[in-house]
Write a structure and sequence with these properties.
Residues 402-429 are annotated as: Disordered. The protein is mainly β. The chain has a domain at 141-439. The protein contains three helices and 33 strands. The strands form three sheets. The chain has a 20-stranded parallel β-sheet that branches. It has an eleven-stranded parallel β-sheet with strand order 6-9-11-13-16-19-22-25-28-31-33. Strands 1-2 form a two-stranded antiparallel sheet. It is globular, with a radius of gyration of 23 Å.
Length: 446
């Protein structure tokens, strides 16, 4: 009988802790040690199972896998719904791929929460959340995964919280073909493509909130991520590009539409000690490339050497109906620039109530005031852009400092997730304070 085959569960001092015991099978084929219906337990690593993967394989719906401090050399795939994987210490529970595996943690079942740990040194992703079998198999892509003729299948309901993802070869935290989830209170750095990425969802019903992304090629990227897609209250400082929302033929569910980007600090995104961005971007706070009907509200966008916010288009996908409202721009090369290198442009893009000084074309604040008729053509201009310096390998990005811990990690039970997360009240999200710009001491401005 395998060591971790049949087992019974024992309650100790009122706290359910797993005791792994071989138990025989009766003549009728039933497990004599079968767990009572509705019983949830804590499986401790390494006390109850020697590896995280072994503990996850034992877990049933509602269980908590609680991991003690240590360095774990494994790729953890979670295929059981509604379990929680949590580290006892965010900085001291480290899943290290040693550049020998594609992903650190893969969420392939609904209702799963991953909390309070570090994932690093994976050739693709730190944490991957996906309903795509091809993505689980580790098929790489330039921006996300090219899943060929695979039908779109969504993983529904997930949480990534208090996770540090650093020095990963594609994305730090990646939600692809997933819906109804939250990425929060996490830190990403050294993402060779982006720190946080959401791709191929419509409607997404995903909230990306209160995260820090620095020293990535791109801080946050949303590709073909449409409908109830919220990026709110994040610190996207000291990357090569702060934030992009775009359409891309490599993924399904074109075009990108309807993201809401509110209350983010997007600053100083021209860092040299970072991985080179795949498209060569550098010095840009916000880039909209073939994305439409997005709202950018009360963001503080400062100190980006090329441009604070750029709207452009792919060769065949316009950027239409984007609204730039009540943002504060300062010390950017150009505050707002609209540049279309091909005949594909856009319509109905507009601005209102922003604190800004420079636009290309000039006088956009007066000539493109929201609201605009949907068929109003978007003008194009050009400006002198700084040359992007060479980057560094993602493996050489500076190690992160200590990050805030999940509260009461060792005493709180498993996290139960709703089918659909509560979506934010964006009217209550303020403009980030200018004082927050002083908190970028780790970032080397150019």
């Amino acid at each position: 009988m395998p060591r971790f085959g049949r087992r019974m569960m024992v309650a100790v001092l009122g706290t359910l802790t797993l005791v792994l015991i071989s138990c025989s099978t009766g003549e009728n084929g039933s497990d004599q040690g079968r767990r009572p219906t509705g019983t949830h337990v804590t499986i401790r690593v390494p006390a109850d199972a020697p590896t995280i993967s072994a503990a996850v394989s034992l877990a049933q719906s509602g269980d908590l896998v609680l991991v003690a401090p240590g360095e774990y050399h494994e790729s953890v795939k979670i295929s059981t719904a509604h379990i929680t994987l949590r580290g006892e210490s965010r900085d001291k529970v480290v899943i290290d791929g040693r550049l020998q595996q594609a992903n650190g943690v893969v969420l392939a079942a609904p209702g799963v929460a991953v909390e309070n740990l570090t994932v690093q040194n994976n050739t693709q992703n730190g944490v991957l959340v996906t309903g795509s079998a091809a993505a689980v198999a580790g098929l790489p892509g330039h921006r996300g995964y090219n899943t060929g003729n695979e039908p779109v299948t969504f993983l529904k309901s997930f949480l990534v919280s208090y996770v540090t993802a650093t020095r990963n070869g594609l994305y730090g935290i990646y939600a692809f073909s997933a819906q109804d989830g939250v990425i929060e209170h996490s830190y990403t750095s050294g993402g060779a493509d982006s720190g946080i990425y959401v791709g191929q969802c419509k409607p997404c019903r995903i909230v990306v909130r209160d995260n820090i992304a620095e020293l990535n090629a791109v801080g946050y990227e949303g590709t073909n991520a449409s409908g109830d897609m919220y990026v709110v209250g994040n610190r996207l400082v000291g990357n090569r590009v702060g934030l992009t929302t775009n359409s891309d033929h490599q993924e399904k569910l074109l075009p990108q539409q309807g993201a809401v980007i509110v209350g983010n600090l997007i600053a100083d995104n021209q860092q040299t000690p970072t991985p080179e961005q795949a498209d060569g971007g550098w010095g840009i706070g916000v880039g909209i490339d073939g994305g439409s009907d997005n709202q950018f509200v009360r963001n503080r966008i400062a100190g980006n050497a090329n441009a604070g916010l750029v709207i452009t288009a792919t060769a065949d996908l316009p950027s239409d109906g984007n609204q730039i409202v009540d943002n504060t721009f300062a010390a950017n090369g150009v505050d707002v620039g609209w540049k279309f290198p091909t005949a594909t442009r856009g319509r109905g893009n507009c601005l209102r109530g922003n604190d800004l000084r420079t636009t290309v074309p000039a006088q956009l604040a007066a000539s493109a005031t929201c609201p605009l008729p949907a068929d109003s053509p978007t003008p194009s201009g050009t400006w002198v852009t700084p040359k992007a310096p060479g980057g560094i390998p993602f493996t050489d990005v500076a190690a992160p400092g200590a990050q805030p811990q999940f509260p009461n990690a060792t005493t709180t039970g498993a996290t139960a997730l709703p089918d659909v997360p509560a979506l934010p009240d964006t009217a209550s999200i303020p403009l980030p304070s200018a004082s927050l710009l002083a908190g970028s001491a780790r970032v080397q401005t150019s």
